Predict the structure.
Amino acid sequence: MAPWWQSAVVYQIYPRSFADSDGDGIGDLRGIAAHLDHLGALGVDVVWLSPVYRSPMDDNGYDISDYTDIDPLFGTLDDIDTLIEGLHARGMKLVMDLVVNHTSDEHAWFAESRDLASPMRDWYIWRPARAGHEPGTPGAEPTNAGSFFSGPGWQFDPASGQYYLHLFSPKQPDLNWENPAVRRAVYDMMRWWVDRGVDGFRMDVINLISKTYPLADGPANGPGGLCYDPSIVVEGPRLHEFLREMNREVGLSAKELFSVGEMIGVDAETARSHTDPAAGELGMVFTFEHVSIDNGPTGVKWDVVPLHLPALKANLAEWQEALADVGWNSLYFENHDQPRSVSRFGDDSAEFRVVSAKTLATTLHLLKGTPYVYQGQELGMTNAGFTSIEQYNDLESTRFFAEAVAGGGDPAQLLGAIGFKSRDNARTPMQWDASANAGFSTGTPWLAVNPNHTRINAAAAVADPDSVFHHYRRLIALRHELEVVRQGRFALLLPEDERLFCYTRTLGEEVLLVVANWSSAPVVLPSGLPDRAGAEVLLGTHDSLSDELAAWESRIYRLA
Ligand code: TEU
């Protein structure tokens, strides 16, 4: 029998931006607990919570200073117990974010590790300055490792005269997974949460835990000779071993816990090696390939080119095929790190926002795998529309802007790219209603509310049977009803077509045909698609059976 999570739809909550119960302008656990009916109405099975642990919030909680406590901004351990109960009572499960490639520099482990003589020195990755260089001077970093958040990946610690590795911000030192005591501490912590009632983990950048390259120089491709190439920091030699050990020690497979590993730079073959049930590692992984399709020739996210639909289709099809028989896909267009899909891949104009959001949803949710809905995606929420760097909070955006401007970049052009790709596009407060602050908070929200909340909000969407929300609800229900949606074999049609995204799903005699117009102009369906005579439309964006699809129209047929 297929494991339960192969029938599930996941809803991701970014707690800071979901709902604020106490008026401090920051979302919290009680805010989430007050909105469980929204999730119940949508019909999702699992909630994934971005980090709510104690944190100095340098990276909004992805820098954890205590893994077994809740940050006071978000509430208390009692609040998380209440949330777990509330979700379980409604038949939903809770998946916690697991951030164990790095901790905060304010974690007690790191405080101890700063001491050269401590047995915990080796819990992090410390190295002396490059030979022949004065420690702490420019260029004296042990290697040319760049950080994902711009600048060197090594931070000088004057007290010991050595450097520590941080692949993310200087406040996110990397743990040393070679040390068995580190691994034991992580597994203990995971068991502690499982015992508390959580149903699984989303594992942050988990394919970075086994280190290779950062301990030697890599090819220079960034300012000042830094190496920013992610392909050489991922998938280290002991990754499979560590993931198997974690699975065994925590009982991920044995207890049918949910597990998804975020993997930078992972390709479909490698994903299969991690999600093959025989490997005993992970349920599924998050790839970045399809959300890098609109990166330009440098491969950097800020180098934006228009979407070329055949490239996106080819990539999604490659993953569908590679994981058809062994392993499992995760399906996502949005999360807290990605811009809003309706602004990125769809058309967020007043005319086409609703229909294009629905068609993106149909295209994604009819694929084989576990779909993820990111908060607000079910409303067709759009990019933030920020125009000045002061409006941004995210350290990835602000550090990139500072570095690029210092290097002579044109601020207006940089703001254009950041406006399109910044993570803050996904982090503006959830739009609950048309009132001040969108019903998110009675205080001043930590990040500006999108002014379009007067039109785009949950109250309006729930009241309108033709809304994006009800389209998502129907897609989720279809997955729950039909085995062919869950397990049918995928086949891409019209791979070269630049406007149509069409495919079939087949299980035994049953065939579904998805036709989707990914353009803002009508398109005639070409001959050569499967025969639609006598077919039933299970869900469409328009009440039409015409061979001409309207702009952004899509249909799901059950063929006769
Ligand atoms: O993201 C990993 C990651 O690769 C992102 O930083 C990515 O590079 C960027 O967002 C896309 O341009 C995870 C978390 O999802 C992210 O929120 C954290 O900031 C990061 O790890 C560090 O924990």
Q: What stands out?
A: Residues 59, 62, 99, 148, 168, 204-205, 262, 264, 301, 336-337, 396, 423 surround 1-O-alpha-D-glucopyranosyl-D-fructose (CB under 6 Å).
